[in-house]
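The instructor's notes for this session suggest beginning with a concrete chain rather than abstract definitions. Hand out the sequence below and ask the class to guess, before any prediction is shown, which regions might be ordered.
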Amino acid sequence: MPDLIVECRKLSKKFRWYERHDMLKSTIANSWKSDKEVWEWYVLNQINLEIRRGERVGIIGRNGCGKTTLLKLLTGIYTPTSGTVRIFSKRKLALIELGVGFYPELTGRENIKLNWVFNGLARSELKDRFDEIIDFAGVEKFLDTPLKYYSSGMTARLGFSIVAHARPELLIVDEILAVGDMEFQERCYNKIEQLCKGGVTLIIVSHNPADMERFCDRAVWIEEGDFRYDGEVSEALRLYKEMVLG
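After discussion, reveal the predicted structure:
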C-alpha cells in the first residue's frame, strides 16, 4: 500500500547466552570442555506489523518482553534472526538510548553537526535550524564545552532537540524522555504533539499509561515475544493491566 511506512513480516530475533565463569580458577578448570552450556531464546517470535503514515503507535509490555528489541530492529541497530523489516522513509529518526551517536570529547556544537550528518541529513538544513536546536535544548552557554561535562538531562535535551528539529517522517522514541526535569519533559511532549499534527508517524515505548492515551491512536501489547493485542489504546491498557494485576 502506498501509505505504508513500516512493514514487518514473520519477524523474529533470537539471542544466545553462553556459560560464564567469574572466577579464574573456574574458567581454567572448564576451559577443556567442548560442550559448554548455551542458552537460546526468542525475544520476538514471528511477529507481523504494519504501520501507516501518520499513525501514532504505542508499544506496551513488561520489562524484557521485547519492546526495545523491536525498536532496535526497526532502526537497524539489530538485524533479524529471521523475517523481514521494511521502512518506507528516508527520514527515520530515533531516540532509544541516551548519548548514542554523541562523542563525550567533542563539544556540544561539534556533536550537533556530527549527529546531523550521521542521520543522513543535509548540512544546509542544519544551517537553517541550528539556532532553533540550541534554543530548545537550552545549552547555549555550554555549546563549546565538551559533552563529557554535560549532565544526563542536558545530553537528553540536546539529543531530543536535534531529532525534533530534523523534521522526521518517522519518529521512534523509547523511554529516554523519562530523563530530565518536568518542565523539559512537558516541552518535549508538546513538541511531539506538534510533530504528530504535522503528519509525523510516531512509534513510542512507555510504561506510563498517560503517555499512551496522550499520544497514541493505537497500541501494541507484547508479551513473551508475541503480540497479545494490537488495536484500541484503552483496550490494550485494560488487558495489560488485567494481566499484570491478576
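Then share the key points. The radius of gyration is 20 Å. The first helix runs from residue 24 to 29.
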